[in-house]
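Notebook entry, structure prediction.
Reason for the run: the old model in the group folder had no record of what sequence produced it. Starting over properly, with the input documented here first.
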Amino acid sequence: MILIVEDNEKNMKLVRDILQAKGYGTIEAVTGEDGVRLAKEHVPALVLMDIQLPGISGIEALKRLRADPATASIPVIAVTASVMASDRRNITDAGFDGYVGKPLNLKEFLAAVAGALEGRKA
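New structure, fully documented this time:
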C-alpha cells in the first residue's frame, strides 16, 4: 500500500493512475495532517509526499512521521514542483528518502518508487 499526500486533484489522479496501473494499492490524503493520520492508521510501505500542502507542509508532516516509532521507518519520497537546487537541498536535509520533481518523468518516478520499496524489504 502506498500513501499519496497531494492537494492538487490532477496530480493526485496522475500518481494514483500510474501506481494502480503498475499493480500498487493506494490510499490518499490531501493535507499533511491527514497524511500523518493515515500513515499511523495504515502503516503504508511508502509515502509519496507533496511539499506545498494546506495546513502543515510536507516537511513538517515528515518530521511528525519520523518522531513516531510506528511510522519512523516508512520511506517517504518528496514529489514536488520545488526544483531549485536550494529547495532540493532543504528537502534532502529534512530527511526524505528520495525526491521526484514535477512534472513527473514516468521512468524516474517508477524507479524511485521501486527503489524505496526494495529498500524497505532489506
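Summary: The chain has one domain: 2-121.
The old model has been moved to the deprecated folder.
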